Structure to design on (305 residues):
């Protein structure tokens, strides 16, 4: 599987190495197919050793309360994925822990279910094995069987939701952790903070441009001038900032189109003509040429594969 997605096995021995988001999504799809397990994300979240989560696992499960645990998970999310958002929304009666990409879109089924099941696993390690959220939201459509979801989550599940999230009473944030380790957590906080300082900023120009483009691709690609106006800067400064981040207007657009094309083809509900339109291509033939350049395969062959 690593060979098929173009990742060296040596990467597994280097904890601080990174792979692209698109590569990870392909790896999840290959793993599901190879294992023949439609609930792979749930099962990986259940069985992964705590040490495989590194800083996150120990910092979260060593926190004094459930609220502190989930707050740390949000704070250190960027160490796992540079452009995803993990947000803790707290209301008067209900709180929610929710995940999304920089553009607000959710990840596909397997990584989405892995994330949600992992949060619940950590929540039970902090608040006690009897803890469960009151509801789980999953962005993908309802699968044929949800028996494993009900077993793992221990609560109602809502599918085709706007985001992947768990909901629970706000008062649960004060639940104490009987196994809290303040000394270890203080040490990990200092280490994690030093790692975050070396990470690129959340609000990079490239990511802001990507999020802006995503909502405007359908029916045609907007110009760099339009993007610059929307981002309150000149075209020259937009291009200069992108160059300083090691990218270009064309590279951001190409990457966005490539990743969205893979997601839409994998989803299977849109026709090739509809996907071409959603990605801003004037005709299907142009989409075919671009997709072959990105992947070496036609969109139809990729979908069938």
């Amino acid at each position: 599987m690593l060979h098929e997605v173009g990742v060296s096995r040596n990467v597994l021995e280097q904890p601080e190495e990174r792979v692209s988001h698109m590569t990870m999504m392909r790896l999840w799809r290959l793993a599901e197919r190879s294992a023949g397990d439609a609930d792979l994300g749930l099962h990986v979240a259940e069985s992964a050793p705590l040490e495989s989560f590194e800083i996150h696992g120990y910092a979260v499960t060593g926190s004094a309360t459930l609220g502190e645990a989930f707050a740390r998970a949000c704070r250190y999310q960027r160490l796992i994925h540079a452009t995803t958002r993990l947000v803790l929304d707290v209301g008067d009666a209900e709180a929610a822990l929710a995940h999304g990409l920089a553009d607000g879109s959710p990840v596909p089924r397997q990584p989405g279910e892995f994330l949600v099941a992992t949060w619940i696993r950590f929540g039970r390690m902090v608040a006690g094995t009897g803890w469960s959220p009151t509801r789980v939201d999953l962005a993908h459509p309802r699968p044929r069987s949800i028996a494993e979801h009900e077993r793992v989550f221990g609560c109602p599940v809502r599918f085709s939701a706007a985001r992947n999230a768990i909901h629970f009473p706000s008062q649960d944030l004060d639940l104490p952790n009987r196994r809290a380790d303040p000394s270890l957590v203080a040490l990990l906080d200092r280490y994690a903070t030093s790692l975050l300082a070396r990470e690129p900023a959340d609000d990079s120009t490239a990511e802001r441009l990507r999020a802006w483009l995503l909502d405007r691709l359908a029916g045609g690609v907007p110009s760099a001038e339009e993007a610059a106006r929307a981002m309150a800067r000149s075209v020259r400064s937009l291009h200069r900032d992108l160059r300083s981040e090691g990218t270009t207007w064309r590279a951001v657009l190409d990457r966005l189109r490539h990743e969205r094309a893979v997601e839409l083809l994998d989803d299977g509900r849109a026709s090739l003509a509809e996907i071409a339109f959603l990605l801003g291509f004037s005709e299907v033939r142009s989409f075919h040429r671009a997709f072959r350049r990105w992947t070496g395969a036609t969109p139809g062959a990729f979908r069938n594969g």
Notes: Residues 228 and 234 are 6 Å apart (CA to CA). Residues 38-197 form one domain. The mean pLDDT is 88.
